[in-house]
Amino acid sequence: MTTIAPPTSRSHVPLAAPTVSGTGVALIQSAESIMHATEIVDLSAPVEPAEAVRAAAEFRDLDVIVRSVESKAKVWQGSDGRWWRSGGYVYLFPGRDGVMRFSIYLRRGANESDYEWLCGIVESAKSGALERHGWDAYSSARGSGWTFTGSRSFGNPLECVDDTKELIACEDNRCRRTVHDASGDFHIADDFDHDTHAFEVSRSVDRDTSDEVYTVYARILTDEPLTPAAAVGMASDLQWAAESARRANAAPIDSRTKGMRDPSSYWERRNALEQETNH
Ligand SMILES: [Zn+2]
After folding, report:
1. How far, in Å, is the centroid of ligand 1 from the Cα of 270?
2. pLDDT for 191-250, tens place per residue?
3. Which of 18, 83, 92, 109 could lock onto 73 through a cystine, CB 3.0 to 4.6 A?
4. Structurally, how many domains does the chain consist of?
5. Closest residue by Cα to residue 159 from 79, 77, 37, 88
6. Residue 276 counted as domain residue
């Protein structure tokens, strides 16, 4: 099966003051500053063998973390009349622990389609689609890497409605989810389903009640009488869920390492690097 990625534009952040649409997304039409900056990149351009080899060695196994940023998602129109949407951007850059990782940044108002598109960009980069596929070299005092700030092709927002749900990045490292529905969702620390019952260890996603604790949400899925053994099994699972909630509540939130496969080595490396810098 051949997958053709949509073309993207590498226009950088528009300078013109945006008009704001009702959806909380900045809507920008034919701003002069954009018209000259648009560069269409064909994301479906094949990856060269050397690019694939390099990506397999250097990028394929890197962590991918997702964060929310305050800047708004943008919908804008290029000089040729085509519409574009930027719900976020990606860095491939060393963190404060010196380790390279992909960081997907979701703008305010970013939706499920934006997120999936950015995840696809990361997957393509892991297969070798980097410099020639819309990524720009980037360096700072901390090191060097790449950024992807392209926009995805979009319909005229005055005619088309993109109603996939708005997402925010999860900042709770105890939760299994990466992103949440911004209109209301639950952090999930643990869950399991059986024929007769389902338990979920969760707390609501709400920026204003960040101290809320994990509780156990239990459902019995059968009206049939339980054998003693099945009843004991259910009780045992419920006990497990209670323990899981206790464990989650006892662990501090560490937003910094959310999404990292090895959080403890992040702090070891970062502390070591910061000590080096201070001496
Ligand atoms: Zn969560």
Report:
1. 24
2. 989 889 999 999 998 766 655 899 999 999 999 999 999 999 999 999 999 999 999 999
3. 109
4. 2
5. 77
6. no
